Amino acid sequence: MTRIWISHLHSALVALMLVAAVAPSHAFAEEPRAIFYNVTTDDAWTAGMSLAQANVAADRGHPVTVFLNVRAVHLADRDAVQGTFGPSGKTPAELITALSAKGQTVLVCGTCMKVGGMENADLMDGVTIASPDLTFEALARPGTIALSY
User: Which site among 31, 57, 63, 93 is 20 to 30 Å from 145 CA-CA?
Assistant: First the structure.
């Protein structure tokens, strides 16, 4: 009896391996989920980590939205002097530019800009002033992963 059971189990495993081997690789893959990065700091190390990770996520096919708020609005200031994020050797502004070039969304909190002494003319290309509609539409999309830095 045990021998028959083992034989059936072996046959089932071989059949499963054959199906897995001939099935297209995307047949078992999940659709890339949207990722929302909430960035609140202008510290190059912390912000650089979030922006470098956002670029990797975009390269892997995830739709990415970055929301720069509180002190992070200064990352989108076209004239700001910024440190580099060690592992990438790039400034947060360069990482934001790379995201924009990949067609990803970078939102900047307009209220935080005003509090931080910034004006619309200070913004670098490729970023959009956030509205509640834009922000919450991206954040509330079903299946969205939200990360905060």
Answer: 93
Q: What local confidence, expressed as pLDDT, does residue 3 receive?
A: 54
pLDDT confidence of residue 1: 54
Give the other-Cβ count within 10 Å of 61's Cβ.
10
Query: Where are the chain's structural domains?
Result: 30-148
SS3 annotation, the chain: CHHHHHHHHHHHHHHHHHHHHHCCHHHCCCCCCCEEEEECCCCHHHHHHHHHHHHHHHHCCCCEEEEECHHHHHHHECCCCCCCECCCCECHHHHHHHHHHCCCEEEEEHHHHHHCCCCHHHECCCCEEECHHHHHHHHCCCCCEEEEC
Q: Which residues, listed in sequence order, are joined to residue 129 by a DSSP beta bridge?
A: 108
Superfamily of domain 30-148: DsrEFH-like (3.40.1260.10)
pLDDT < 70 stretches in the chain: 1-29
Q: What is the pLDDT of residue 86?
A: 85
Question: How far, rounded to the nearest angstrom, does the alpha carbon of residue 90 sit from its chain's CA centroid?
Answer: 17
User: What's the pLDDT score for residue 24?
Assistant: 46
